[in-house]
Design goal:
Layout (H helix, E strand, L loop, with lengths): L9 H6 L5 H4 L3 E5 L4 E6 L13 H18 L5 E12 L7 E11 L3 E10 L5 E13 L3
Length: 142
């Protein structure tokens, strides 16, 4: 059974990223299941730190993008979400290829949501980052 409360397509989700940080870093949503969002981000000069490795901030932006999209799709049209807190554990460095992230809800409540995002190196399937985001659910009718 699906957790989504809005109609969407991959094209409509990716179109929301036009002219945003997600577009600048090359983040795309590649798959949506009944209870997860999956996306991909390149590991290149846009996402590197000075030593040529994936920047931790790029990983966090990727994680927040995935969790926030999931959160936004899991509320009805009378609600929206905003980020309250995000944390990330950087497990391993990568210097090229792509990373794949999967966001899954831990809690979807009336006032908050908690999502876990796991980011792996696409080419090796090695864990790169584990993140958790807490979102506030905002009632737009108030």
């Amino acid at each position: 059974m699906s957790i989504w409360k809005k109609e969407f397509s991959l094209e409509s989700i990716n179109a929301m990223s036009k002219d945003t940080a997600a577009e600048s870093l090359g983040i795309t949503i590649t798959n949506v299941g009944n209870d997860y969002i999956e996306g991909e981000m390149p590991v290149d000069k846009r996402t590197h730190q000075v030593r040529g490795l994936l920047h931790g901030g790029s990983s966090v932006l990727f994680a927040e993008t995935l969790g926030s999209i999931g959160g936004a799709l899991a509320v009805d049209d009378n609600h929206t979400i905003v980020g309250l807190e995000i944390n990330a554990n950087h497990i391993a460095g990568v210097s090229d290829g792509n990373v794949v992230g999967i966001a899954r809800p831990i809690h979807i409540g009336k006032t908050t949501q908690v999502w876990e995002i796991r980011i792996n190196h696409k080419q090796t399937n090695k864990a790169v980052c584990i993140s958790r985001i807490t979102l506030a659910v905002i009632d737009l009718k108030k």
